[in-house]
């Protein structure tokens, strides 16, 4: 987790719940978002030929 400058973002309750469902015990929202971004970037690099 980045302990530098932090920012606040607004999320709907539905999005918050979706993030919670994708995380595991002890994960922060930042942890979950970083994992999802990493997965997206990894998948994108696999599809580029």
Give the mean pLDDT. Answer: 91
Note the total helix count: 2
The total strand number stands at: 0
Note the run of SSEs as H and E: HH
Structural class: mainly alpha
Q: Helix fraction? A: 55-70%
Rg, please? 13 Å
Tell the overall outline. Answer: extended
Beta content comes to under 5%
The biggest sheet amounts to: none
| N→C terminal distance | 32 Å
Q: Which regions have little confidence, pLDDT < 50, spanning 5+ residues?
A: none
How many separate domains make up the residues? 1
Describe the structure.
With 49 residues, this protein is mainly alpha-helical. It has one domain (13-47). Helices cover 59% and strands 0% of the residues. It is built from two helices and no strands. The mean pLDDT is 91.
SSE layout:
Elements: H1 13-22, H2 29-47
Q: Can I get a quick summary?
A:
This protein is an all-alpha fold and 49 residues long. It has one domain (13-47).
């Amino acid at each position: 987790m980045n302990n530098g400058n932090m920012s606040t973002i607004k999320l709907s309750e539905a999005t918050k719940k979706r993030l919670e469902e994708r995380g595991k015990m002890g994960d922060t929202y930042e942890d979950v978002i970083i994992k999802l971004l990493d997965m997206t970037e990894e998948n994108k690099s696999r599809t580029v030929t």
